[in-house]
Amino acid sequence: MNAPRRLHLVECPRDAIQGWPHPISTEDKLAYYRVLLRVGFDTLDLGSFVSPKAIPAMADTGKVLDQLEAEGIWDQVPTRALVIVANERGARDAVEYDSVSAVGFPLSLSPTFQERNTKASVEEAWKRLDVVANHCAKRNKDLVVYLSMGFGNPYGDAWSEEMPTTWAKNLVDRLSPSVVSLADTVGAATPQLVERVFAVAAEELGSDLLGAHLHLHPLEGLEKIKAAHRGGCFRFDGALRGVGGCPMAQDDLVGNAPTERLVEWAESEGLWSVGNVVSLDQAQSLAADLFA
Known about the structure:
Elements (H helix, E strand, L loop, with lengths): L7 E4 L1 H6 L7 H11 L6 E7 L11 H11 L8 E6 L2 H7 L5 E9 L2 H8 L3 H17 L3 E7 L14 H13 L3 E6 L6 H15 L4 E7 L6 H8 L4 E4 L16 E2 L2 H10 L8 H14 L2
Parallel strand pairs: 1-2, 1-8, 2-3, 3-4, 4-5, 5-6, 6-7
Antiparallel strand pairs: 7-9
Helix pairs in contact: 2-3, 2-11, 7-8, 8-9
C-alpha cells in the first residue's frame, strides 16, 4: 500500500501579526521567527512589502529579512520564506532577497473586496499581477496567487461554485503560478462546499497547483481543512493559536486555522511530521506571550 501523500504546511505569522491590535517589535518578531524556522514547516509566510500606511505592522519586513540572512539561518533549516506584495514596487523589493522563495499576491473574486484590500479594481489587480509575475520569473521566485473570497462574499458580488476553478484555469493559462490558494476569507463556507470546490479544481487542474487558506470559527474544529483534503488539497496555511483572519469577517472569533491542531491532525494521519518538537513547544510558548 502506498504511503499517504505528505502535506505542505505554511505557517503564517504575517497574517497573525498584521491584524494584531498591539504592535510587535522587530526584535520580538525575530525571536519568534528564529524558533518557527526550526520547527520544520515547509513555508513561513513572514511578512509583506506593502504600504506601511496600509499595514504598519509589516513595515519592518526588510529589516527582518536582512537580519535573518545575516545570521545565516536559511542555510540551517528546510523552511522557505514567502512574502506578500500588492504591486510592482513590492515585487521589486521582495525578489531582491535570496531567502525569499515565493511571492504571494491577493486576487479577489469579489470586486468590492479587491478595492477594499488593495485599492484597485479587479482589472487593475490583474495588470499588477502580470507585472509581479514577470519579476518572479526573472528572479526564479515562485508565484503564489491567493484567490480571496473564493467561497463567496458578504457584499452581494457575483459568485458561483465554478468561479474558483475558472479563475484558477485563467491564471494557469496566463501566468503559470506555482500555487493557487483558495481562500475562505470571511470563514463562511461549509465543509461540504469546500470539498466540492476543491474536488472540481483538483480534477481540472491537478492537486499540485492548489493550496487552502481557510479561516475558521473555533467551534468548527478542522472540518473545513479535512474537507479540502478530501477534495484533493495538500497545502494548508495556518497560524499558531488560530490568530489572524480577515477584518472584513465582522466576527472576532473567525481566524486562521490553528497550526497546533493542523499538526496534530496531520501527524495522526501520517500526513506530516514535526522536524523539531522542542522548537514547536517553544514557538507555542512565544505565541502565547505575543498574542495574549
